[in-house]
Amino acid sequence: MGYNVVWALRDSEICTSPLPVKRMRPPRDRSAGTGRIHTSVAMYVITHSPPGVAAVSERSLVLIKPDAVRRGLVGEILSRYERKGLTIVALQRRVIDSALSDAHYAEHVDKPFYPGLREFITGGPLVALVLEGDQAIDVVRQMNGATDSRAASPGTIRGDLSMSKSENLVHASDSPDSAKRELALWFPELS
Predict the structure, then answer these.
(1) CATH code (residue 117)
(2) Radius of gyration in angstroms for the set of CA atoms belonging to the chain, rounded to a whole number
(3) Starting from the edge strand earliest in sequence, which strands make up the sheet with 170-172, in order?
(4) What is the enclosing helix (H) or strand (E) of 127?
(5) Could you give the residue numbers annotated as active site?
(6) Pairing mode, if any, of strands 58-64 and 170-172?
(7) C-alpha torsion angle, residues 105, 109, 115, 117 (rounded to 10)
(8) Domain span at residue 93?
(9) Are residue 121 and residue 151 in the same domain, yes or no?
(10) pLDDT tens for residues 1-49?
């Protein structure tokens, strides 16, 4: 594996790189003889996969639910994913019908809470998107926080922006198998 070292004044200068990036400690200021660490630069090691081996990347379906759309939080939520380094592959604002809700939440259709969930998810516009990146499924779920927003950690989307278990702003695929199933439902053109 080869490495390229890149020095940048700000994180934003390297954020558009499609290559995996690892942040390192800044260099010591040897020119002044003080041995102090520069605070205005950061070092990044951009790693390249060995020849013939593709970088590991996966996709996750994310739904920004009607409560988040109604509250005007779409931009805030999208910017968190982008700042993390995830790539938006597809995005669509739409209102879904009961058939898509039933297919998406198939494992919950017979549960007592499902009629309320169906009414909520079909009750207004939502934003469906596909995010891609290294371990995207786990990364997105960690960023979203616990399903019950009241127990979600500060710093997560739900922990910072929601106070409800049922209206919890976002949905994300919870495994590679569910991502494959959900992406085929919501974005069949990408399958």
Answers:
(1) 3.30.70.141
(2) 20
(3) 87-94, 126-133, 58-64, 170-172
(4) strand 126-133
(5) 171
(6) antiparallel
(7) -20
(8) 58-190
(9) yes
(10) 333 333 333 343 333 334 444 444 444 444 444 444 333 333 333 334 4
